[in-house]
Design a protein that fits this description.
Layout: H1 2-5, H2 10-17, E1 23-30, E2 36-43, H3 49-64, E3 73-77, E4 91-98, E5 101-111, E6 114-121, H4 131-149, E7 154-165, E8 168-179, E9 182-191, H5 196-208, H6 212-220
Length: 224
């Protein structure tokens, strides 16, 4: 086990920790020797902080042979979605041609009781399921999300395409999220519908919704 410890990627550790009951998101920061320098968790208030931290320590030691000092684990617990001021998820309101400019796509999102808009240029005939339409839908969605989360993370579209399945087509979106702690590729999917932009917007949000609590928590701490 100890021999494997130095080779475990941070992403694998994060995925394992996020399976702990009460943990909605995790970020592991490795040191220069691939040891764990910091662990940042976003959790539910349904469990005691000590229980979540203790479970994190036990999981890492039992599964990866990695002992972690509890002082390296920080936990932010977010309340219920009904509490005022809480911003953890956003939902799609619309994805359609801008009412004042037919060459521009406008995506409108809602979060924390406020609306956020993002736009992207669209090509003639972009309602077809071509890559240009998918890219526009994802770009406009990211622009709206960027206004929601602020400068703590920079978001860009790496890929947006359709995938054929037995029951139809899926929209697949791959997002590159860059923060002071590094880069991460996020993926999201949504079943294709007649509204290509709406399906792409939903796939884009699907890629990011699990990371939003982490970004919001860091933003509230000034990016630390």
């Amino acid at each position: 086990m100890s021999g494997r410890r130095g080779r475990v990627p941070a992403g694998e550790l994060e995925r394992a920790i996020e399976r702990i009951r009460g943990v909605s998101a995790a970020r592991v920061i490795l040191g220069p020797r691939n040891d764990i320098a910091e662990i940042h968790l976003v959790g539910s208030p349904s469990r005691q902080p000590k229980q979540i931290v203790r479970d994190t320590e036990s999981l890492l030691y039992a599964r990866f042979g990695t002992p972690v000092d509890y002082r390296k684990i920080s936990l932010v617990q977010l309340g219920s979605a009904d509490e005022p001021g809480l911003r953890t998820r956003i939902r799609l309101i619309s994805a359609e041609a801008h009412p004042d400019d037919a060459d521009e796509l406008r995506v409108v999102l809602q979060g924390d009781g406020e609306r956020y808009e993002g736009t992207a240029l669209i090509e003639s005939g972009a309602l077809s399921q071509g890559e240009s339409a998918l890219r526009a839908g994802s770009d406009a969605t990211l622009a709206a999300v960027q206004g929601f989360v602020g400068p703590i993370v920079h978001l860009s579209v790496q890929e947006a395409r359709t995938i054929p399945t037995r029951d139809g087509e899926l929209c697949l979106v791959i997002i590159l999220a860059s923060t002071p702690h590094g880069q991460q590729r996020l993926t999201g999917t949504c079943a294709m519908t007649d509204n290509v932009w709406e399906a792409t917007a939903k796939a884009t949000l699907d890629a990011m919704n699990r990371r939003l609590p982490v970004w919001i928590a860091r933003s509230s701490r000034g990016g630390t």
